[in-house]
Amino acid sequence: MIQKRIALWDNLKFFLILCVVLGHYSESYVSDAYKSLFMFVYTFHMPLFIFISGLFHRNTRIAQKICAYLAIFYIYKIAVFLVNAAFGKDPGFKVLEESGAPWFMFALAVFTLLTYLLREVNPYLLLVTGVILACFSGYDPSINSYLVLSRIIVFYPFYLLGTLFSGENMKRLERILENRYLQAAGVVILAVWAAMCLFGLDHVYILQILFIGRKPYSADLLEWGYLWRLLAYAITFLVGFSCILITPKKRIPVISVVGQRTLQIYFWHRIILYAFAYWGLPMAICPTRIGKILWMLIGVGLTLITSLKIFSFPTGTIMKFQKKTGKNIENSR
């Protein structure tokens, strides 16, 4: 049975992958505007991608999925290695450690395996346990980018939350999302948080390390780290849910199609950005305000270009191969 794609999630994924690309592009220059964009985007973009992955988790073809995710993870790492080496930079290669863009695929493989192995455990108990573990794992400095462990612990609750709304519960979620009062509240929440990131950056920037999820608590968070983590989770939940609420529910030309191809955009945009950086494009374009705007427009253009079918290799090929034993079309990054 072929499952019809849901426009809401494709539209949302377009917005999220655009946030990923622009977030990485904005790293090419340092300014308060960059920090504000960084704070706003990192509050929700990866948690929502992970939530959507959990939403469409199925306990089928587990081995194939895990192998596919790990294959993309290592191909991505090798591609970054080769680009760096080609431009004369000492690339380094750590088989079991990753702090850059490929981390998501390794984490997704672990999320898939954990959810399958723990399928008989009460999901609400798992969610509470996961949140508690994340709140206190930040005190352990050994939990970092090795085996992507820090991000796995921090972001797994969002995957679990997605699984709670899968299947028949997805219809309930879609009905909730039609509530006009909630939609209005979502607009207000997004506007308030955007204003905080833009005008109150000094007050909220302390949370940025928590939104990234890659490192243990910094010294200024250490005493009340678990409460700061709960606050970060609360903000992410409110802002992320608000993003879902205001996302159009009907198919939109170009946007809905690009939203189906976020995996290939995720793979190629960072590699191309590394090449741009080595060619000196950011330094040549970004010094002026107009240049920064142009640089962001280049990021938007790159998002659209890398969504073309010509860029479906190798991610599309790998994902099609793992689906050969099944007939379902799933909305997954």
Compact summary:
The chain is mainly alpha-helical and 333 residues long.
How would you portray this structure in words?
- Residues 326-333 have low confidence and may be disordered.
- This protein has helices at residues 7-25, 32-42, 45-55, 62-86, 103-117, 123-137, 149-164, 169-177, 180-199, 201-204, 208-212, 225-246, 255-258, 262-279, 281-285, 289-305, 315-322.
- It is built from 17 helices and no strands.
- The longest helix has 25 residues, at 62-86.
- By secondary structure, it is an all-alpha fold.
- The chain has one domain (7-322).
- Helix 4 (62-86) packs antiparallel against helix 5 (103-117).
- 36% of the residues are buried.
- It is globular, with a radius of gyration of 19 Å.
Name the descriptors.
mainly alpha, single chain, 333 residues, disordered C terminus
Q: Which range does the strand content fall in?
A: under 5%
Q: Count up the domains.
A: 1
Shape: globular
- Unreliable stretches: 326-333
The number of helices is 17
Average of per-residue pLDDT values: 92
Please write the string of helix (H) and strand (E) elements. HHHHHHHHHHHHHHHHH
Rg calculated over all Cα atoms: 19 Å
